Amino acid sequence: MLIRLFVFLMLLSAVASAQSNATVNRLLVKDSMGIGGRWIREIRSDSTMNGTNEGTISTDGAWKSYILNNVRNSPLSPVPGPARDSALTIDPATGKLGITPISRPAVKQFEGLTHNPWLKVSAGPLVNGVTIVEDTIHVECMSSDGIKSIITFNGAYPDWNYAKGKAPFTVKTDWVNRHPGKFVLLDITSAFYPNGRQPFNRFFAAYNDTIHFKQNCISSDIFFEMRLSDSLPNCVIMPITVRNRTSGMISIRSADGTNIILPHEELRFKIWYGSGLGVGYQKVLKSATGELILCGLDNHPLRCLVYENETLTNTVTADSYYGFLVPINDPSSRLELVVEDMPIVSQ
């Protein structure tokens, strides 16, 4: 009898040790448990992550609190207090996601230039009686440390989100007009630093045409306003290319609004040409981290080469402080403006 019992217990032990799945209501481990060749001795809920090692596992709640407490000025963070000096981003040294330092100016008068390392991106319809468009646009935001965020908006509903990473950002989107007999219009307001001026861009596209938008050096926020129109004002639609070869920001003012071109960049778009086309200039400084700071008006000579249908038709020289009007011989032509700095001649 004892022999039979011994054999039975041996067989039962062999079956139990060979079984790979077990279902239990509760499991109490007094010392440690082995998972995938590693011994786990503790499951921690400490959101400071102090004392973690190869033998511990942290809960989802602990990780969430740890991330929120360490993302500087995160809109999701429940922790009040001063701006932190680190952010959850891609470490440029290792290429891995982690909490990495955010450089902050040490000089007190520049404290206003520190800001959320994320970019707020928002969109919505124009609500003053125009036709609301329910198209969808996808906004691509690329941070300076290589994090790409895709944010999707519907033009009929106000919405916002955050692009992750370090400023400055490059933001771009394309919008195809799929509305026969109508025009789509996209107004874009953006900021280069917190509480700064709000550069403004306006684009439009006829049926089956596409609005292409790309802007570099965005640091604070950007807003897209989408709308639909049955017609445009009684103006000539003129394709224009502006090549900014100056050290400042160029603004092109036409009947439909203003478009900006950053230093040493170019922009292709269409304008509603009425009675004139103006060019303005603002001085720009670039920080060590690549962010632009608008410094107001400047006083130095500019030259503008005016090409119509690829033929040089006019050359304008003017003072950057006052801006100037562009002479156009044929409003139906393809217009190209090349704006460049001129050397200052000492008296």
Overview of the structural elements:
By secondary structure, this protein is mainly β. The protein has 2 helices and 26 strands. Among the domains are: 55-113, no CATH class; 234-347, Immunoglobulin-like (Sandwich), CATH 2.60.40. 8% of the residues lie in helices and 44% in strands. The strands form 8 sheets. Strands 10-7-15-12-13 form a 5-stranded mixed beta sheet, with no helix packed on it. The protein has a 5-stranded mixed beta sheet with strand order 19-16-26-23-24, with no helix packed on it. It has a 4-stranded antiparallel beta sheet with strand order 9-8-11-14, with no helix packed on it.
Summarize the helices and strands and which ones pair or pack.
Blueprint: H1 2-18, E1 33-35, E2 38-40, E3 42-44, E4 56-58, H2 60-70, E5 86-90, E6 97-101, E7 119-125, E8 136-142, E9 148-154, E10 159-163, E11 169-176, E12 183-190, E13 200-205, E14 210-218, E15 221-229, E16 236-245, E17 249-254, E18 257-261, E19 266-273, E20 278-282, E21 284-286, E22 292-294, E23 301-308, E24 311-319, E25 324-325, E26 335-341
Parallel strand pairs: 3-4, 7-15, 16-26
Antiparallel strand pairs: 1-2, 5-6, 7-10, 8-9, 8-11, 11-14, 12-13, 12-15, 16-19, 17-18, 17-20, 20-25, 21-22, 23-24, 23-26
